[in-house]
Amino acid sequence: MRVLVTASSRGIGFGVAKVLLQRGHEVTINGSSEEHVRKALEALSPLGKVHGVTADITRREEVVRLVSEAVKAMGGLEGLVYIAPPPRPGRFEELSPGDWELGVRQLLLSAVWLIQESLPHLKRSRGSVVLLSSFAIREPVEVLALSNVIRISLAGLTRTLARELGKYGIRVNMVLPGNIETDRSRQVIESRARAKGVSYEEELKAEMADVPLGRIGKPEEVGEVVEFLLSERASYVSGAAIPVDGGLLHGVF
């Protein structure tokens, strides 16, 4: 399968791309930093056929170019994995109108633009889409107001697209990562630690105490679920929202 994975030069996206390559898929990775994309390509190239496109997905013209270059490099597109660049952490009162406007472009409009541009190719291939959101859409997380509010829109987008695009054989699903070991998760934990006046180690221990599996997750563990949803093994799964959180969520639904 030929797959485009956004925001994949580091963090969860890098882990997803790594798993996809290990399973034999052809992958185009993406990031907004040319240096980060280059380093990611160097690390991933031994695993399989991988391409890189530097583009800022918060800008529509960059999204158009990203999809075009990915399709050209791979000769088509059969899978789209949407991962957003991380928004600024902070409580509601700490965020400016500009933060909210950028957050909407980061966490919602970028997904809309990517799917709009990818759709003609996905129709031809009867492809699959996986949107990564966050467990925070079901249980709001302290100091992450932008994620708590805006990422919920991806749930509506997932269900809407699953119903509208099914007639083309296109499946659309969503993954909700929990606490995953990335630079971003460290930033969030540090932010909470400062707010509480405790050390990073103390806050990390407190975070893990609420995870039934008792540990932080790995990006590759998210990648395994994404790869399953893209594959024919999930041929009758569409419109689903699957947590990858070590059992952290408390709600039944």
Walkthrough of the structure:
With 253 residues, this protein is an alpha/beta fold. The protein has one domain: NAD(P)-binding Rossmann-like Domain (Rossmann fold), CATH 3.40.50. The protein has 9 helices and 7 strands; from the N terminus they run βαβαβαβαβααβαααβ. A 7-stranded parallel sheet has the order 3-2-1-4-5-6-7, sandwiched between helices. Helix 1 packs across helix 9. The longest helix is centred in the middle third of the chain and has 29 residues. The chain is globular, with a radius of gyration of 17 Å. The two termini are 31 Å apart. The model has no long low-confidence stretch (mean pLDDT 95).
CA-atom Rg in angstroms: 17 Å
The helix/strand class is alpha/beta
Give the H and E element order: EHEHEHEHEHHEHHHE
Task: Please state the average pLDDT score.
Answer: 95
Q: How far is the first residue's CA from the last residue's CA? A: 31 Å
- Net shape: globular
CATH architecture: 3-Layer(aba) Sandwich
Proportion in β-strands: 5-15%
Q: Name the CATH superfamily assignment.
A: NAD(P)-binding Rossmann-like Domain
Give me the count of strands: 7
Number of domains in the coordinates? Answer: 1
Specify the oligomeric state.
Answer: single chain
**Helix content range of the residues, please?**
40-55%
Q: Describe the sheet with the most strands.
A: 7 strands, parallel
Number of helices: 9
CATH topology: Rossmann fold
The spatial strand order of the largest sheet comes to 3-2-1-4-5-6-7
- Poorly predicted segments: none
